[in-house]
Amino acid sequence: MPRSVTKVNDDGTDASPSTSDEPASDSTRQSKIQKKSNGIEMSKQEAKEKAIMLKMKKEVHMQFEHLLKTVMQKPEIFKRPEMQYLREFVAAVENNRDVFPRVMGDMLYNEYIQSTRDCSDNDINLTAGYIDALSRGQDTSSAYFNKLILQVVARDTFQQHARINRGDNDVDGYTQITQLQLCDGDGNTMLGRMATHLAAEARKLKEGDIIKLVLFTELTHKLGTSLPKPAVFILEYSHVGYAKVASDIHLPLCCNFSNQPNKSYPTANTAQKVVSESDAECRHGKRLCSVYGISMLNCVTKTNPVSRLDLATVREDCYFANKKVEDMDNCEKRCMIYWWYATNIYSICGKNKRRQLPNCLVKAIRDAYPEDDDIYEGFHFSE
Predict the structure, then answer these.
(1) CA geometry: angle 239, 244, 245, nearest 5 deg
(2) Which helix (H) or strand (E) holds 174?
(3) Is there a single domain that holds both residue 134 and residue 202?
(4) Residue 6 belongs to a domain
(5) Does residue 193 sit within a domain?
(6) pTM of the prediction?
(7) What is the Cα–Cα distance from 79 to 82, expressed in whole angstroms?
(8) Sign of CA dihedral 115, 118, 119, 121
(9) For residue 340, what are the CA distances in angstroms to 36, 287, 343?
(10) 115-133 tens-digit pLDDT
(11) Which of 183, 249, 315, 364 is spaced 20 to 30 A from 381 at the CA atom?
């Protein structure tokens, strides 16, 4: 059986390693300090290397951007042998638009209209002249625009923070937003925003899809200090075909009519009244329904008439509608319709967001579902 051996110093003291809690020697402390110092130096070195890598990547992107701008200015460069990789990349993008789609906000290269596009692959013609008419403030209620066919040039779906109404309580949440860049038969483009109940389904749309707008609101939108541009808020659409997007499409047009209506926020009134025709007159230059940050090109009662609402569908979405439509009286139907317009057109539902609907719209709703004695309760007009 092996024996344990104890090392002894010359003076007879134990020379084996100490296991006590005595303070570390100066050399041990120096070693720890050195290791810690090395760690700090390593961290600084890593940060420095990371900054260098980011700078190199930025320079590479800038060089490539410069190359592309040079090729666009001097197209003959594109034919050179050393540009083969670029030609093959462009071909791959053109033939795989599902994989390499356009993104909302992208600048379009060619602003020249070569011809009215005819989606002959599906015998579907895009509606010509529509976006130009919107930008000029012209009447688009003619029969020619009844069947409005547009093409998706780009799509963007994202989450937006919102206060969501849950009965008596408002909670923080996120609303899914889907926006489209739409092209008409003249090659003009504009923004199309889907109603929230369509956002999930509309995210399946891809570049080249052709859609028919069934129910929508014409309005304008602004980015920063830019001039207002025509847009549509889409409440119902149908997919009718697909065709490759032509290259000859315009940048979004700016509105060029001078009498833009002023946005105003009506205040509550404590008294009910029967609104007259003059009180509800909504015309260009006095667009009553251009409120709460929304600029209507035509009256909301024309673009989204009450008569076209499917009350059964509205009831499915309306949280306080607890009767079948056929069991509702006109007052209950009006309240449900008020809610639908406030939610889907003006986004003024929820705590601290409630506002009054414009007189022209309320009158249209009351005309569609009137009270026999012409006395209305539960809604207040602005003066």
Answers:
(1) 90
(2) strand 169-183
(3) yes
(4) no
(5) yes
(6) 0.44
(7) 8
(8) negative
(9) 65, 20, 5
(10) 233 444 445 788 888 988 8
(11) 315
DSSP symbols for 83-128: GHHHHHHHHHHHH-TTTS---TTPPPS-----S--EETTTTEEPPP
Structure tokens at 273: 């009244």
Residues 155 and 233 in one domain: yes
| Beta-strand relationship, 118-119 and 124-125 | antiparallel
Q: Are residues 275 and 190 in the same domain?
A: no
Q: Based on the fold, state whether residues 264 and 364 are members of the same structural domain.
A: yes
Collapsing DSSP to helix, strand or coil, 258 comes out as coil
Q: What is the pLDDT of residue 211?
A: 92
Q: Which residues constitute the domain of residue 320?
A: 259-383
Whichever domain contains 161, its CATH number is 2.40.50.140
Is 50 exceeded by the pLDDT of residue 250?
A: yes
Q: What is the per-residue pLDDT across 134-192, written as a single tens digit (0 to 9) for each?
A: 888 777 776 677 788 999 988 887 776 655 554 555 555 666 778 888 999 888 888 88
Same domain, 194 and 116: yes
CA distances from 74 to 119, 271, 367 (A): 32, 70, 63
For residues 204-232, give the mean pLDDT: 82
Of 251, 246, 341, give the one whose Cα is nearest residue 289.
Answer: 341
